[in-house]
Amino acid sequence: MYFDKNIKTKKKRIAVLFGGQSTEHEISLRSSINVIQAISQRKYDLTLIGVDKSGRWILYNNQDCLLNANNPSSICLLPISRYLAVVPGYLKPQLIDISSGLPLPLIDVIFPVLHGGNGENGSVQGLLQLLNIPFIGSSVLGSAICMDKDMTKRILRDAGIPVTPSITLLRSNNIMKNINVIFEKIGGLPLFIKPASQGSSIGVSKVINLNDFREAILLAFQYDTKILIEKEINGREIEVAILGNDLPEVSVCGEVFTGDTFYTYKTKYFEEFKAELPAKIPIPISRSIQEIAKKAYLALNCSIMARVDFFLTSQGQIFLNEVNTLPGFTSISMYPKLWEASGLDFTLLMDRLISLALARNVTTKPKLQVKKDKYKLPI
């Protein structure tokens, strides 16, 4: 078969979605900087879409979208008003520039770099599915399950995977009158109190005395109607990165060292914490952690990517702590660092993520018979 090398193949269009309405808005903006820089514009065309704190989608020109990009405490979206409308369904167009009334070029893959609520809890994933746009990250189900730490633990316990011991409390529970019962169930102090559906250690407290208990409970309930109380695990913090769909690959193990009482929001995003990649742990333990991570990934219906966090005790016990389906991509984030330590640099990692999103779309896209009438814009 003759192939003309002079024929140029059309570049895929990748949209990066960043910002969002969650408490992790600024972290999303910081992650987006590295994602945008790592996507090869020689291979792909880029569309940049910011989501402001009101939830409006804003179209930006390439690279010109952030103010104070180098200052983590004051970074924000550039205030412009090219808002977008979405058109659910299986016909074109998907997104419309409201200011002009014109549709955007067809998007092949969206990377929703949206940390926290309405970003990694299945909400935006459901919208993108309705828009029939392949996206990077877990499905609606996998995203929703992993965002809720209580539901994550229920499924993992059923799958026989060791998780950090905890109890779940609702706002309606009469907590303060049952402190002794709680301590009896959890095994005493110290303990951690955290919202069930928050990321980046937001709303998390370490409780070492009874005087701090009530304050920690009230703080956690500011962020969620359901909270977890966990027994402290005295162990090393080990993390792995996962990449793939039905046949996921697992990175080398990495160990995180923090100078704080635990891996806080400040430590994760505002300080240069120390990490060892790969972690200095025995090979059999490293392989066990990787196998447990893969088993958890599949049990939780994850796909494309995730970071899985563990505790490793001095007795060699392994406890799975959390699964993050949209890990950070800031300059100090562990997910890209783990893959770099495994031989996959940031640009190649972006290529893999895009390919996995396209591959999943081929296997899950419904076979619908749609009448191909000319599509009229709704505005």
The level of helicity is 25-40%
Biggest pleated-sheet summary? 6 strands, antiparallel
Give the number of helices: 10
Class from helix and strand fractions? alpha+beta
Element pattern in H and E: EHEEEEEEEEHHHEHEEHEEEEHEHEEHH
For the record, the CATH class of the largest domain is Alpha Beta
Cα-to-Cα separation, first versus last residue: 47 Å
According to CATH, the fold-level topology of the largest domain is: Rossmann fold
Mean pLDDT: 88
The CATH architecture assignment of the largest domain turns out to be 3-Layer(aba) Sandwich
Word description of this protein:
The protein is of the alpha+beta class and 379 residues long. The chain has 3 domains: 12-137, Rossmann fold; 154-161 and 234-325, D-amino Acid Aminotransferase, Chain A, domain 1, CATH 3.30.470.20; 165-231, Dna Ligase, domain 1. The chain is built from 10 helices and 19 strands. The strands form 5 sheets. Strands 14, 15, 16, 17, 18 and 19 form a 6-stranded antiparallel sheet that branches. The longest helix has 19 residues, at 346-364. The protein is globular, with a radius of gyration of 22 Å. The relative contact order is 0.14. Mean pLDDT is 88; it is low at 1-7.
Please specify the SSE layout and strand pairing.
Layout: E1 12-19, H1 25-38, E2 44-51, E3 57-60, E4 66-67, E5 76-77, E6 84-86, E7 95-97, E8 102-103, E9 109-113, H2 123-130, H3 140-147, H4 149-158, E10 166-170, H5 179-186, E11 191-195, E12 205-207, H6 210-221, E13 226-231, E14 235-244, E15 249-250, E16 254-257, H7 265-270, E17 274-276, H8 283-299, E18 304-313, E19 318-324, H9 334-341, H10 346-364
Parallel strand pairs: 1-2, 1-9
Antiparallel strand pairs: 2-3, 4-5, 6-7, 7-8, 10-13, 11-12, 11-13, 14-15, 14-16, 14-18, 16-17, 18-19
